[in-house]
Amino acid sequence: MIGISINQFSKRSDFEWEISTDYRSDMRVPVRVFASISLLIEALKDKSIMQAVNVSTLPGLVSAVMVMPDMHQGYGFPIGGVAATDPANGVISPGGIGYDINCGIRLLSSQISHEEIKDWVPDLATMINQICPSGVGVSGDILLSKTELMEACMKGAQWAKFTGYETARDIQFTEDNGCLEGADPTKLSERALERGRRQLGTLGGGNHFIEVDVIANVFDDKAAQMMGLQKGAIAVQIHTGSRGFGHQICSDYVRRLQSAVVGYGYKLPDKQLVCAPIDSPEGRDYLGAMRCGANFAFLNRQLLANKVREAFEIVLAGKVDYWQLRQVYDLAHNIGKFENHTVNGEKKRLCVHRKGATRAFGPYSEGLPAAYQEIGQPVLVPGSMGTSSWVLAGTSFSMERSFGSCCHGAGRVMSRSQAKRKVWGEDLHKQLLKEGIEIRARSMAGLAEEAPQAYKNVDRVVESVVGAGLARKVARLCPLIVIKG
Amino acid sequence: MSPHGYEEVEHTADLALHVWGEEFYSLLDHSAQGMYHLLGITMNHTFPAEWTFKIEEGPKECMLVDFLSEVLYLCVDKKCIFNEFIFSKFDGNLQINATGFRMESMKRMIKAVTFHNLEFKETEFGLETTIVFDV
Lengths: 485, 135
Description:
The structure holds 2 protein chains of 2 kinds.
Chain A lengths: L9 E4 L2 E4 L11 E4 L2 H7 L4 H8 L9 E11 L1 E9 L5 E2 L11 E10 H4 L3 H11 L14 H10 L12 H5 L17 H8 L11 E10 L2 H7 L5 E8 L2 H22 L11 E2 L3 H36 L9 E7 L1 E10 L2 E10 L2 E2 L18 E4 L7 E6 L1 H6 L3 E2 L9 H7 L2 H10 L3 E4 L2 H6 L8 H11 L2 E14 L1
Parallel strand pairs in A: 3-4, 18-19
Antiparallel strand pairs in A: 1-2, 2-3, 4-5, 5-13, 6-10, 7-9, 7-11, 8-9, 8-19, 12-13, 14-17, 15-16, 16-19
Helix pairs in contact in A: 4-10, 5-10, 7-9, 9-10
Chain B lengths: L5 E4 L5 E7 L2 H16 L2 E15 L3 H17 L3 E11 L2 E13 L6 E2 L7 E3 L2 E9 L1
Helix pairs in contact in B: 1-2
């Protein structure tokens, strides 16, 4: 254990724990952890909770720093961290959003049954892999001019309308309609623009993936029906973000704020937590640039979704009646946004940082599509390759306890080098194939780094958020095809 | 301690490198070679590469992140890998003349060089620090 023990938590429920500000003199707010006791004890093995304690020192926090059960150690903020600041006296921290701005998940549903396409699953895997550019440093087939990129940054997923890559439903079923207002491309560096021009419509490497799943279980018939999810049908998940464009934006501003924090007199426990008042030249510039990154990511997933649709059409047209893929939802899990929440009985506009955490708005919340008003927002929780993924729905309780936030995945437990020591990529490939999962990966070492053993059990993570009341189960998905960069 | 001036440190999700050098410039050199090691780089020795770039002089932590960020950009975006760096001070900046080769292959991506807990320590052998990379 690193510096903090289970005895320092007070228990609020079986799935909610709190460290009070008495723990360390520089804490401004408590740290609230949503997890079962066993996941909490496991989390104490790395620095994730200590990183959350560091976050609790940021100026202008309105309530506890939250940590989700898929937490793990990051850099500055822990992964799974949520922090809300008051725009009047609070800060925005680029590290609280991360380098992969608007890394997120898109889920597409279909009316195709697994049974219907059993024989074409390998062909489908090969075609998706061929059409969707993936891998380390890979450029896409779309090369934008600087002006086009700046325009795309302002319009987000809606930019795809002009290229025939978008449907009205896709936009309606994307968080913030696929476009954050207030994006300001004049706040981007030349290098960010240069990097962004070549990377639109690409998956990237690392933990990014495209996964074709079968819907194994439905737990909430009404919500599943509203989302278009049927037991035994095929669904597709796309996990990627803003690529080198977002990485450059975050790098530029973390660097710029190193000197700014001195001017503002902030004393921070970690240089990666640098921040600026929301209403300051640095804060406004970062917000304008960060929203460009977020909009790029919405557009990137939009373009990839259409490449996947193309692959489905090439392989399945004429073989099944309906090969079309319909958007269930697209959401961000690395983002900073202004949202209305109730704090101590008062409705306030807050700047919510989510670093490896998903928005999980409950029924009748602002910004949900009409079809989801009654059931709450879909919360997409991908598992590790070879295990289940989950579709949940946000609850009213999440609005009260976690600023409408939930977990974003399984969460790592093993370092990449440890995973490579324990798992041989070729063996894992064979094992997954034996389980009926087609894998297309650029490198076997990369596959080993992302082995299921390197992650927590996603089912336990989901049990924790459901137990805590932050979300409820809608459906469980099992993988058939995994495309890794 | 490794003779290369760097060693990988375990990190749950990202990558970390412990680097050291007799003085600051050798530490910069070792950190670049360590980052190439983490990226799993191979060079194409038939195509030489040369690049000159500048970083602003300032706190060591900022100079290290600026230097590695530039080396990372030249690797990922320009496909250039350098095995020699010559450092010279120039008009309030540090000028770096880098020579090496074109990249042949890269096994994994590093998104960025972070400032997470970045601090230099003076030791009897020189300087050391630990750098966390976002992957």
